[in-house]
Records
---
Amino acid sequence: MEPYSVLMSVYVKEKAEYLRMAIDSMIHQTITPDEIVIVEDGPLTDELYAVLDEYESKNPRLIRRCRNEVNLGLGMALNKGLAACKNELVARMDTDDISKPERCELQLKRFAEKPELSIVGAHIDEFVGDIGNVVSIRKVPLTSEEIYKFGKRRNPFSHPVIMYRKSKVLGIGGYADMPKGQDWDLFGRMLCNGCKAENIDVSLLWFRVGMNFLQRRKNFEEIKSSIITVWRFFQMRYSGICDLMIVACAYLAMGIFPIGFTKLIYKYTRQ
């Protein structure tokens, strides 16, 4: 199986204890990464710097740090980190989630079995507080055909648990400079340009959600970015007019109606 890199981005509002848990979960994979590239997206807190300094001193050949003088946003930070990754296969990881130990081994095996794939993802367990309190499972479509169809209206991957080919991501221009939805936009462009993808039928990451997670889904920027993303897909003839209208109506309704309605929409988008 090929060597792989891990790509992470951290910014000032993240918690040091969560960052520590995220890095640990990648260091202790059943197949260890070749490198962990961490982009410091703007100035950080002393606590975050302390965690990064500690892991860099203990693992000088593993941890690689890239620094942005100012916060550029997730998409631009990931583009910088991706360019610094030395391997073709790159595992994305967020700095507040926890990968399961076998995550990367299973993804590497899928790439070895099917070298034509550009993206391999999986399901995720959503938890509150600690990983023993899983409140829901986000299941994603499995086959390349199902993913292509699903992606026209909803994100067919969970971003923090994907592994992709660096050349394929950079080949379509990398992440767009968007405040939200950079991952769905990227995946849609990759799929529209003929990239093949699969999701493994198992949960491979614990995804941290807060008690106000659904309330944040009603945020105007979240709603706007989702509609704009499908509009872009419509312009490049990936999504159709029906897809665009359904997404626009669903997200606008989610912003207008009470939280109970948001829960129904959220449950629908999890399946």
Note: Residues 46 and 136 are 34 Å apart (CA to CA).
---
Amino acid sequence: MLGLGKGKSLLGLDIGSHAVKMVQLKPTKKGFALVHFGIAPLSPESIIDGAIMNAPAVVDVIRDMLQTHKIKTREAAIAVSGHSVIIKKINLPVMTAEELEESIQWEAEQYIPFDINDVNIDVQILRPESAIQGQMEVLLVAAKKEMISDYTAVVGEAGLQAVLVDVASFAVQNQFEVNYEAPKGETVVLINLGASVININILNDGITTFTRDINMGGNLFTEEVQKQLNISYDEAEALKLGGQYGKESDAVIPQEVEKVIGEVSQNVASEIQRSLDFYSTTTADNSISKIYLSGGTSKIPALYKLVEKKLGVPVEVMNPFRNIEVDAKKFDPGYLQEMAPLMAVATGLALRRVGDK
């Protein structure tokens, strides 16, 4: 699931609970260039906790995007995350990749809390020789077949073929590796703050050492504003977005909204801190040098300032187009910059190639 192949490029399609994001790239002599970029909102409750509740609505949005952007590519990469996906780093006796493929089914049964017949399993050797003599570090990923089937079905109905299914955390990591240079030997944290799921991926020396999906996100802010101000979901969403995306740099948020956003930010930042504290207690490595945020919720200033303050670590909001060639005549630089944090997963998926494992 990691690493970039050399086959034909894929359309990166990030189907989130709040919106569908799409990115298409093409290889250049210097790296990659942006070909297509789009984002379209989904009606509330089309997807709840990662489960597709209104498939026709999702299909319609994807179809409209393909038509609007005149997409000719029909092969796509999609991502999954949440409680239907299990990621574990395990130690196994040193063996070849072929031997690992053969033995992983029964090895995985010890670590997967689902029926082994209900999941698709993938595996990646992280360190061929771990600190433990005769052992190797392996990343084990299991995703429920039913969820993958639901996502590939809506993509298929929209006229695409999902030829690759990645994990959201690793898609963010793919674009990070292209756009940023993580210092050798240091630990950085990639946090993707979606509408309903927060994906955490901790990298030490460029290798995943810990991942966790937290089932909370930007919807919490909208729901709390809606509840405390007794307004509709759409009005609450507009107020929340007005604070984040207001075109006037001095846009004023009503004081009550600021208060609610501050309270929810405290809860989200505390949950992130708990995950990082857990990581610190289970590993000898507890020196995080930087935190990189992505996802729509990362644009809430109160949140990333709180995360920085609570953890005492520098925080930066990622730009997945930082090292991607962008034609300013074709794409509005201001709008691209504004939407960039939302596009981390889609960009990571667009970096994948036909034939990647």
Note: The chain has ten helices and 16 strands.
---
Amino acid sequence: MPPRWLRRLLLPPLVLLLTLVVTTTMPVWLIALAALSSLPVLDRSRVLRVVWFVVLYLLVESIALVALFGLWIAAGFGVAIRAPWSERAHYWLVSRLLAVLYREAQRVLRLSVEVEGPDPASYAGKPLVVCCRHAGPGDSLLLVHALVNIYDREPRIVVKDTLQWDPVIDVVLHRLPNRFVDPDPGRTGEVVTAQIAQLASNLDGDDALVIFPEGGNFSEHRRARAIARLRDGGRISEAEHAERLRHVLAPRPGGLLAALERARDADVLWVAHTGLDRLHSVADVWRELPVAKRIQMRWWQVPASEVPDDGDQQVAWLWSWWTTIDEWITERSDRRAP
């Protein structure tokens, strides 16, 4: 990644300029799109939906950048950017941005989301460690939207460092307690674990640490690579276990164990979802438009008193829950297969 100062210098002005160009030339390219969409090789509905989302995203991004700049000035040109009032203002801004994108996804893409699980009141006032499967670019946004807009949480997230190419994500997540990590840490794995442990420290009653134990989106290639990595490391029983999992990757326990060590009083939420599994790229989204997806999410709550203390038991516990999540996804995938 380019250094942060260079990203700040180049990317936000580029987004603002692009938004200005797109909005001021809208009549011209709308006429051009109307002509192109009349061609038999193009689907007018898909073209209009994609264009609308591109314009919407640019507008939301630009408004957010202006608001973030205003917060930076209000914080004494960044001096008090991590003050409690500033943190609350940033979380409020995130909640509004996600609410707009979610509402438009429901309207334009005809998405519907069903959430099944414990009553949020059952863990009100308790710190949470949230472990979620990873499948597609939209699941992270849906999960964070649920946490901030439904469960009134302030999430701390462990995300890929490549997301820093998005200037709003880059700015917001660096101002709030989050961590960008290498999706394939390799020799830096211990550093990533230490960062997660630091992030899990001092969770309060409205915080939620979000971890994706798989380390990346599910794909058959990544599934095979994860199994091979386990075999090469001599972890034969775990490799055989991973081979029996159909919809999730073999979990990497290091981050979760570090979080549980630092957040012993936190309840653990396990999150499964299905419905976005086939949307891994822009081409997938284009092919599926209009998506009209019914996304199902399932939350399980484990009180802190029931979380194992021993590291080996925690690893076995993680594999057990990952099997439960895989079985839950399999059951719903089989129902949709016909």
Note: Residues 4-336 form one domain.
